[in-house]
C-alpha cells in the first residue's frame, strides 16, 4: 500500500510564501514523476508543477517564475516552494506520484490534499 502525506498548507497574505511537502511511503518499486495539482472551488483540478526522476520540471503558465518544484529522490519526497502568492492561487493542493509497486505496473497515487488560502 502506498501513501502520500502532504504538509505545509495554510493561510497567507497576498505576496507571501508557503512551502508544501509530500512524502511517499509504502511498497514502492520506482517513482517516475511527482507533482502538484490544485483544485479551486467550482473548477477542475489542474497541474501546477511536475518533476521527473531526472529532474526535468514543468510548470503551469500561471505559476512560472513564482513556484519552484524540487524533489529528494532518496526520501521519495517532493516540495513546492510558492512565492509571490496571489488570491487566485487559493485552492486545495494535491500531491501526485506516478509510480510502480512492482515490475510491469504503473499507477497514479494521490495525497489527501492540503488547503492553501491567499487572502488579506
Tell me the major beta sheet: 7 strands, mixed
Q: Helical percent range?
A: under 10%
What is the average per-residue confidence, as pLDDT, rounded to a whole number? Answer: 96
Shape by Cα distribution: elongated
Q: In what range is the share of β-strand residues?
A: over 45%
- Count of strand segments: 11
**Structural class assignment:** mainly beta
Order of helices and strands: EEEEEEEEEEE
Whole-angstrom Rg: 14 Å
**From the structure provided, what is the oligomeric state, counting identical versus distinct chains?**
single chain
Summed up, the helix count is 0
Question: Could you characterize what this model shows?
Answer:
- The strands form two sheets. Strands 2, 4, 5, 6, 9, 10 and 11 form a seven-stranded mixed sheet that branches. Strands 1-3-8-7 form a four-stranded antiparallel sheet, with no helix packed on it.
- The model has no long low-confidence stretch (mean pLDDT 96).
- The chain has 120 residues and is mainly β.
- The chain has strands at residues 2-7, 10-12, 18-26, 30-39, 46-52, 57-59, 67-72, 77-82, 91-100, 107-110, 114-118.
- A hairpin with a 6-residue loop joins strand 9 (91-100) and strand 10.
- The chain starts with a strand and ends with a strand.
- The protein is elongated and about 50 Å long.
Amino acid at each position: 500500500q502506498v501513501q502520500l502525506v502532504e504538509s505545509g498548507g495554510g493561510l497567507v497574505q497576498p505576496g507571501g510564501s508557503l512551502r508544501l511537502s509530500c512524502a511517499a511511503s509504502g511498497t514502492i518499486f520506482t517513482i517516475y514523476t511527482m507533482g502538484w495539482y490544485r483544485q479551486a472551488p467550482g473548477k477542475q483540478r489542474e497541474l501546477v508543477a511536475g518533476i521527473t526522476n531526472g529532474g526535468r520540471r514543468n510548470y503551469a503558465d500561471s505559476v512560472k517564475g513564482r513556484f519552484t518544484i524540487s524533489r529528494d529522490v532518496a526520501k521519495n519526497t517532493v516540495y513546492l516552494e510558492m512565492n509571490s502568492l496571489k488570491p487566485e492561487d487559493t485552492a486545495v493542493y494535491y500531491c501526485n506520484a506516478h509510480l510502480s509497486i512492482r515490475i510491469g505496473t504503473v499507477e497514479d497515487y494521490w495525497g489527501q490534499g492540503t488547503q492553501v488560502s491567499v487572502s488579506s
